[in-house]
Amino acid sequence: MTKRIALAALLAAALVLGGGAALVAGKLTAKSAAPARGGAPAFTETKWPFPMDQWGLGRAFRCSPEDCGTEVQVYVRAKIGFCNCQTGVSDDAELERVGDVELFGAQFAAPGAGHEIKVAWMKGRSRPYDVPGHPSGATLAIAFNDRCDVIVATAVVPDGPAARVEPAVLAFLNSDTVVHWAEKVLGL
Hints:
By secondary structure, the protein is α+β, with helices and mostly antiparallel strands. It contains 5 helices and 7 strands, in the order H-E-E-H-E-H-E-E-E-E-H-H.
């Protein structure tokens, strides 16, 4: 009887210890999707808040005001085979066609021209947008491609303009977290 109790206690302790280790490992993984290196802002993965559509679910990340100066939400997903294979995301018309700004409202407008950006080996464009219900310029559309496949990112701040957080967002998009995910989703 004493051996049974000792064995049960040992088994219970092993389960508690294993569960605790798994919990700590899960919190460490979820804590910081892009660890702060050299003062770089830290983004934490959150739940994708949009319904499923033809492009599937993407990944959502948040940067706190303490790390980014304001709260920043970044939504990223791949659109396989949806980019202009000849020119990539080389102009604002292509950025608007492939981007995800419509997730925030069907009526949106760009107050100015976009500009070229680079994420890892990929080139693309970034451009701020005005979306009803959000401050002017609070939504930033970013798209970059590998041949015919495009990765789109949308950054949103609660108190626009989003262009002020573009360096932090581009640093995050160039982080190992996003680049390794892009390599995997693009089949590289």
